[in-house]
Amino acid sequence: MSGTRSAQPAQPARRVLVAADKFKGSLTAVQVAERVTAGLRRVVPGLEVEALPVADGGDGTVAAAIAAGFDRREVRVTGPVGDEVTAVFALRGDTAVVEMAEASGLQRLPDGVLAPLTASTYGSGELLRAALDAGARTLVFGVGGSATTDGGAGMLAALGARFLKAGGEPVAPGGGGLAELASADLSGLDPRLGRVGFVLASDVDNPLTGPKGAPAVYGPQKGASPQDVERLDAALGHFVRVLEESAGVKTAAELAGSAGAGAAGGIGFGALLLGAGFRPGIEVMLDVLGFAPALERADLVITGEGSLDEQTLHGKAPAGVAAAARAAGKEVVAVCGRLTLPPEVLGRAGIRRAYALTDLEPDVATCIAQAGPILERTAERIARDFLS
């Protein structure tokens, strides 16, 4: 591809940092690092390679933290449609990395059956509570890949909030049930939430409702019909009004319009209500994973993800890695399954050169099925171009 042509570097690199995200549907971020390392060392035996799998706050965030040395913690929580699931969070010292998709993600739907109106984030609240129970004083909450559009109401309920119908019974789970919400009471929220650092990590900056809100933009991915989108948008708007009127949350409307409120079906809004601060997920994760000292040790950085495209430039992991590396004066190349960005755009993003699997195997289905071996061959090309 045209994006792979570039002049050779002036000097060979001596230490390589592999800081790539997953190739969705093919390889985890850990596997990407393993395959790239194997390919590099086939050409340069004994090469010093440091692997730091990264994520942007979405699915794969906990796996990246565990790969960076965090402890793996398992807990049984409520899945998006009420069945019990085993979810994982990561803990190091008093910092916990919690991924909402572990409890409330699309992959947690039984048999993949979508439930746009009824899927709940209750299990995500249980996961946060488990992290608090484990002694966390800093919560990094990565959100993305959700099956839900409930504005975080389920999460809040699991943490002690009460959302009631006019008759006094709890509203039904999911965003659809919020249409019947008559009163909200946040006084029972876990008091520990007020004593921790709480970071909402996401690559999505949408508001809660409206044409760019969670139901309109992301509802269809979760099975919402046009009618469902209208219902969910109205229900979430009603949720905000009840919070203002019944629970006395005078900033509810302001928070609903804030960047990140619409993340992961509006769970971002729930997190903001709890006092979380919104930051781009890749920035948070680079801090948490110890990227800066690893970058300092490196001569060449290899980043990447499954598709390097226009979305990459808007908060995805490779863009964040490249920006940080460029600021430190380090050279960056990228690996990907497919590449749609021209060389000049890659250059502006801080990526010297990009290597796509489709350069070696034009058939996309084969690239997906044999991503590991093809990625190793791609890494061999990088080694020959930049390390020999």
From TrEMBL:
EC number: 2.7.1.31
Superkingdom of source: Bacteria
Membrane-spanning intervals of the chain: none
GO molecular function: glycerate kinase activity
Pfam assignment, any one: Gly_kinase
Keywords for this protein: Kinase, Transferase
NCBIfam families tied to this protein: glycerate kinase
Family: Belongs to the glycerate kinase type-1 family.
Protein name: Glycerate kinase
Source lineage: Bacteria, Bacillati, Actinomycetota, Actinomycetes, Kitasatosporales
